[in-house]
Amino acid sequence: MKSLNCTNILNLTEEKNEYFLEHVSINSSKIMKVYKISESTEPLLFPKLIIQNNNLYALWLEGDFLNFSKFDNGWTNKSILNIDNINDIVNCRYAFEENPQNNLKAKSIFVLNFLAPKFLLPDEGIEQEKLFKENISLLSNCNAEKTIQKLLKDLSINKALNDKLEKRIHVLKLKLYEKDITLNNYNDYLNKTIAQKSNRKRLQLINPKPKQGYT
Question: Residue 81: which H helix or E strand, with range?
């Protein structure tokens, strides 16, 4: 893989059940430099170099993880690309055009879901790692004791408000119950009054008063 007038080569070796991944860089003056990328007791499978957005990366499979590292005057500590199932990864050949507009150069790449390919590229992992570090920074810079006290205070205020609201609801329920009783009593009284008036009219029809002038 060529970049910045250099030829870049990956070298993978095994020694006493340990695996070593190295980067060999040869510049235009034929000066060779060797950089260590990673070492592990796990096999380092399908190592590859890619250039993405003018950055040089190394990717490889190690155990159940897809790892990558970035070259910046030396190789960074390995990071992990989050993959749900390592068995869904396919190692594919990649053809790229030699033009400045192409932001990805590689001999081969890792692809997720071969039927609907998704390239597994370091930039996505770097963004995830950046967000993770930002979250860690926010957590480490916050005052945990003050935060807990504030949360407890908020909970206390909310509890007081809830207790007050429950009491108010209880009073309203009692008033509603009393109103229902009063309304039922009024309806009973009204029904009885109507019934009494109706009975009086019937009695008047059955027993009319005698007319005056007759004996």
Answer: strand 79-81
Cβ–Cβ < 8 Å for 40, 62:
yes
With 0.85 as the threshold, say if the pTM is over it: no
Q: Which residues contact 119 (CB under 8 A, 6 or more apart)?
A: 104, 109, 110, 111, 112
Angle at CA of residue 186, ends 181 and 188, nearest 5°: 95
Which residues, 6 or more positions from 108, have their beta carbon under 8 angstroms from its beta carbon?
46, 48, 91, 92, 93, 94
pLDDT digits (tens, 9 = 90+) for 7-25: 889 999 999 889 999 999 9
- The helix (H) or strand (E) run that includes residue 118 is strand 118-119
* Whole-angstrom distance, CA of residue 44 vs CA of residue 35: 16
Q: Is 30 left (phi over 0), alpha (psi -120 to 50) or beta?
A: left
* Per-residue tokens: 142: 């916050």
